[in-house]
Amino acid sequence: MSGGPETLVRMANQIARFFASQPGPAGAAGVADHLRAFWDPKMRRRILAWADEGGAGLEPLALEGVELLRESGDGEVRAALAQAGERTARRPGDDAG
């Protein structure tokens, strides 16, 4: 699935709202890990480009997750989740929605 910037922003914000209850850096790491695991590369490139253009409409945690996605590889996101108390990061197929 892909969509225009508005669709991607809405989806990223929904993901961020889900992870907002996680303390500290776990929320942003959760957003980044979800984007990496469940969004196709084209969608990830588009949301990164949107963030480069200012990220209009992205909620702060969504933008933080997008920036973490840009800065880190899979191992670094999983390490951030583990450091924040998560045992493992979500894997493709774990998503209930």
Notes on the structure:
This protein is mostly helical and 97 residues long. The chain is 64% helix and 0% strand. The protein contains five helices and no strands. α2 (26-38) packs across α4. It is globular, with a radius of gyration of 12 Å. The two termini are 14 Å apart.
Topology:
Elements: H1 5-19, H2 26-38, H3 41-52, H4 60-71, H5 74-83
Helix pairs in contact: 1-2, 1-4, 2-4, 2-5
Short key terms for the protein model shown above:
about 100 residues; 5 helices
Largest sheet: none
Give the overall pLDDT as a whole number: 82
Q: In angstroms, what is the radius of gyration?
A: 12 Å
Q: Treating each run of at least 4 consecutive H or I residues as one helix, how many helices?
A: 5
Strand content is under 5%
| Uncertain runs | none
Straight-line N-to-C gap: 14 Å
One letter per element, helices H and strands E, the order comes to: HHHHH
Please bin the fraction of helical residues. 55-70%
Q: Determine the structural class based on helices, strands and strand pairing.
A: mainly alpha
Shape by Cα distribution: globular
| Count of extended strands | 0
